[in-house]
């Protein structure tokens, strides 16, 4: 049985899903309560101008009017094995995810992917096509856990198209905004990275340990202003430089940096953005 409901937040969306008895709840990264659409009180301020040119009045009306459907969302959720349950459109994985383990519990369903034990082996995955588009404010979320020992893993938004581009360098040069753990680069905490494809990335330390435990990761873009990175709903990094541009897709994966199997667990992926 599958049941899903959506409630729109001031910023973000709640998605409540039931998969084989497992409840999964996506909350907005700022933890705001549900706000019903529509008018109500508020301070209108001073309105000036002439009847033929009241642009300030129009601006106030545009700001105060309810705007249902002004954002849209896409998501994929694990069923515990096999394919993920994805919504319509381009939010679908490029390949069927091979779940070495995983399952459904009372708290979440997840897929566990595992390398075979060879050194430099990769597991990478992503969407069929771009899920974000230039000039939009974007909210991205995922719930996952990656092995942080002698490995490199990333998760976030990217323009790259190959697994090698994604995982063969600690700081590749193309457009992306993602979280990283890379023991070859000396990461002891989870890092936040942005790159605009022009050279070096902006790299910040989240202050959150790289330990392989389940965490909710979120990236929020204010177009042309900044990228904010959240871990378990707490703001950990804000980037205003080397901001990526253009359309991007969800990408994630892990690379073994020793001849030992590495695991990467994924429960859901969610993207929300402005309508054009």
How would you describe what is shown here?
There is one protein chain. By secondary structure, this protein is mainly β. It has a domain at 113-274: Jelly Rolls (Sandwich). It is built from 2 helices and 18 strands. Strands 4, 5, 6, 7, 9, 14, 15, 16 and 18 form a 9-stranded antiparallel beta sheet that branches. The longest helix has 10 residues, at 55-64. It is globular. The model is unreliable at 1-44 and 64-69 (pLDDT under 50).
List the helices and strands and how they pair.
Blueprint: E1 2-8, E2 13-19, E3 22-26, H1 55-64, E4 71-77, E5 85-86, E6 101-104, E7 109-114, E8 122-126, E9 138-146, E10 151-158, H2 163-167, E11 175-182, E12 189-196, E13 202-209, E14 215-222, E15 226-231, E16 234-239, E17 249-256, E18 263-274
Antiparallel strand pairs: 1-2, 2-3, 4-5, 4-18, 6-7, 7-18, 8-17, 9-14, 9-18, 10-11, 10-17, 11-12, 12-13, 14-15, 15-16
């Amino acid at each position: 049985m599958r049941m899903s409901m959506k409630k729109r937040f001031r910023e973000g969306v709640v998605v409540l899903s039931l998969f084989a008895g497992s409840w999964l709840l996506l909350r907005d990264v700022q933890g705001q309560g549900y706000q019903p659409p529509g008018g109500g009180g508020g301070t209108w301020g001073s309105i000036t101008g002439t009847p033929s040119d009241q642009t300030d009045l129009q601006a106030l009306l545009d700001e105060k009017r309810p705007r249902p459907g002004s954002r849209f969302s896409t998501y994929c959720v694990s069923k515990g094995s096999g394919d993920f349950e994805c919504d319509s459109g381009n939010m679908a994985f490029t390949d069927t995810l091979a779940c070495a383990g995983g399952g459904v519990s009372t708290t979440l369903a997840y897929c566990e992917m595992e390398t075979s034990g060879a050194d430099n082996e990769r597991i990478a995955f992503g969407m069929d096509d771009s899920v974000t588009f230039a000039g939009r404010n974007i909210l991205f979320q995922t719930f996952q856990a990656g092995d942080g020992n002698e490995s490199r893993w990333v998760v976030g938004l990217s323009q790259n198209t190959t697994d090698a581009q994604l995982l063969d360098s600690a700081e590749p040069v193309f457009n992306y905004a993602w979280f990283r753990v890379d023991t070859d680069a000396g990461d002891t905490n989870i890092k936040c990275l942005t790159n605009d494809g022009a050279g070096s990335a902006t790299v910040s330390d989240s202050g959150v340990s790289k330990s392989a435990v389940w965490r909710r990761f979120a990236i929020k873009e204010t177009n042309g202003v900044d990228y904010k990175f959240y871990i378990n709903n707490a703001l950990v990094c804000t980037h205003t430089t080397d901001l990526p541009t253009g359309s991007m897709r969800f990408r994630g994966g892990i690379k073994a940096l020793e001849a030992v199997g590495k695991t990467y667990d994924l429960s859901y992926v969610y993207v929300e953005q402005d309508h054009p």
